Amino acid sequence: MTVNEQQEARIAGGLLRPVLPALLLVGASLVSGCNNKAVSASSAAMPPLPVSVIQIEPTDVGIASEWVGTMDGFVNAQIQPQASGYLIRQLYREGSEVAKDQVLFEIDPRPFQAVLDQAEGQLGQAKAQLALAQINVKRDTPLTEAHAIARSQLDNEVQQQAQAEANVKTAEAAVETAKLNLSFCQVRSLISGVAGQATVQVGNLVNPQSVLTSVSQLNPIKVYFSISDSEYLALTNQASTSSGDLLKAAANVPLTLTLSNGEAYPAKGHIAFVDRQVNSQTGAIRIAAAFPNPNNILRPGQFGRVKANTEIRHNAVLVPQAAVVEFQGQQQVYTVTSDNKVHINTVALGPQYGSDWVINNGLPANARVIVDNLQKLREGAPVSPQVIALQPGLAPSGPQAAGR
What is the pTM of this model? Predict the structure, then answer.
């Protein structure tokens, strides 16, 4: 290439350098404008988001309180012998039901049988002496009247007869005592219930201080729990009694029991015992509830949660728990306005009622509450609401419920 050709090439390159960036900027602007138009067209064409809503209807609900309870037998009896001796037999199966007066253990009866035999022999001697005294009195009475014998002799015989009668009564009492002691060799249950594990074994020497086993009456069963002073007053008011006696109005306060596995016990209970005073250290009062237990499913020592309505709240506003979201420490509920747009309400939650929350304030009484697709919503967003039926305390159901 000649010198002239090189100079012409440099001039042409210098002219092209400012032209290329300008062309690139023009092309980028054209592409960006097309994309913005496409996004705007896409946003304008997006339909309102379908959501499921429930119509709030204020209702009267019972606000419940719940306490942890411990179960115990309605009656608990420790089985102790009334006689001392060696245990020779156990006549019940541990953990089984036993009836009142059923023999549970047997103590060696031979020493007591010997005492009974001796007492019966002494009774026979006393009766023989009484018979002899009666014969003497009967024989000498006419002789005394005929002055054949001295009057003093008859008086002595009458006194001997009286002493013999006293000896017979003493001997009879000894026999009864010996029979009673012999019967104590059979250790019986004083109540009907479920017998526990034997604490002594056959062959052990027992005495009246020994505890052989325990029997508990389990139907009904007691559940002990403690409530605060204010809760006790609320229960008393709920019973609606002018006397303020919670025991007399126990039927007006039905109790429910939730077992440790989370299942609700099918039978309702009632208050069976209220302690005489409030514990000054804890500020609580002890209460016992009685629950039917026909199949002995509930056992002493189990734990459960006792629940009772302590307040009736009128015109309460309820929303499902799934409709309440937390944002920066505040509880929010999404509602639909009259023009089908989303409005976010900051609410104050009250107590829980089933699977619902009681709303204290922050929510209109006739609001339409959104129960699904909450993560996709924002303030003012258009929605297509579909009203679904919802019973108090139940989770929402419907075609959109699965999309929460």
Answer: 0.63
Q: Which of 367, 365, 359 is nearest to 54 (CA)?
A: 367
| Rg, Å, the chain Cα set | 47
Please say which residue of 260, 280, 311 terminates a domain.
311
- Domain presence at residue 25: no
Helices in 146-201 by DSSP H: which ranges?
Answer: 151-183
Domain span holding position 97: 84-206
Q: Give exposure, 354-385, as e/b (b: 16+ Cβ within 10 Å).
A: eebbbbeeebeeebbbbbbbbeebeeeeebeb
All residues at 6 or more sequence positions from 97 whose CB lies less than 8 Å from its CB, including other chains: 192, 193, 194, 195, 296
Q: Which pair of structure tokens corresponds to residue 124?
A: 């026979």
**pLDDT tens per residue, range 309-348:** 877 778 888 889 888 998 888 899 999 998 999 999 999 9
Q: Which amino acid is located at 238 in the chain?
A: Q
Cβ–Cβ < 8 Å for 229, 285 = yes
pLDDT in tens, 71-88: 999 999 999 999 999 999
**How high is the pLDDT of residue 3?**
45
Question: Is-contact 284 226, C-beta < 8 A?
Answer: yes
CATH number at residue 373: 2.40.420.20
